[in-house]
Specification:
manganese; Deoxyribonuclease I, Chain A; alpha+beta; 25% helix; EC 3.1.11.2; 14 strands; 7 helices
Length: 257
């Protein structure tokens, strides 16, 4: 089973590129972030034409997440991260597909920091940890994927100095991420690339893509039950270089049956 994550940065603007990627790589599950559309505007029929079912949690102009599943419809869909009934941002959706619980998230950026946006990021990560602990306790095979907006290690960024003051690299952000791993989750990309140097995001500004000035913020976390099935993981880097591309590249993990 191949499970992928792709911050599409506007599903309507990138729809041709998205369908192109789906057709060429055919993941079993594709988790999308920043779809940037209200629920009623989600182009589900476009994916049905190529054999994908969809579940989505939209929001006008900002955020928004969706899960596409190949052949079979997603089961037991849940929208919104538990723990704060006043949080209306569309950043979290989960479902079950072929016995695996798939969690798709778009974690808050947190900039500028310090400030309320950074506080919201850290509080969101605490709520996420609580939900992920519930998944571990269930012992159901699970994957938690998406744009975490955290650069875990210095080896995950082209220039530590360039990002030193960014919310993505603050000690508090990293500590919150490492607490997730400490609970028993496996970072698939990092496990297979321990020396780092693997980027998933390149800014549109300052020729970042052309100069390969990127960093890794899109992650694939595996529960112990799925970590035992880890066969491969990678980044579809070439799609970042195509016309009208997202500023993220898709990331993926393959699980043995």
């Amino acid at each position: 089973m191949k499970i992928a994550s792709f911050n599409i940065n506007g599903i309507k603007a990138r729809l041709p590129r998205l369908k192109e990627w789906l057709s060429e790589t055919r993941p079993s599950v594709a988790c999308l972030q920043e779809i940037k559309t209200q629920d009623e505007g989600f182009p589900a029929s476009e994916f049905e034409e190529i054999g994908y079912h969809a579940a989505w949690h939209g929001q006008k102009s900002f955020n928004g997440v969706a899960i596409l599943t190949d052949g079979e419809a997603p089961q037991d869909v849940s929208k919104g991260l538990p723990g704060d009934q006043e949080d209306e941002q569309a950043r979290f959706i989960e479902c079950t597909y072929r016995g695996v619980r798939v969690v798709n998230l778009y974690l808050p950026n947190g900039n500028p920091h310090p400030g309320p946006k950074f506080d919201y990021k850290l509080a969101w990560m605490e709520r996420l940890r609580a939900r992920m602990q519930e998944l571990l306790a269930s012992e159901q095979p699970a994957v938690v994927v998406g744009d975490f907006n955290v650069i875990p290690h210095d080896r995950d960024v082209w220039s530590v100095c360039a990002m030193a003051n960014d919310a993505l690299m603050q000690p508090e952000s990293r500590d919150a991420y490492f607490r997730l791993l400490g609970d028993g989750w496996t970072d698939a990309i990092d496990t297979l690339n321990p020396r780092g140097g693997v980027w998933t995001f390149w800014d549109y500004q300052a020729g970042a893509w052309q100069r390969d000035h990127g960093f890794r913020i899109d992650h694939l976390l595996l529960s112990p039950e799925t970590a035992d099935r880890l066969a491969a993981a990678g980044v579809d880097k070439e799609y970042r270089g195509r016309e009208k591309a997202s500023d993220h590249a898709p990331v993926w993990v393959e699980l043995r049956s």
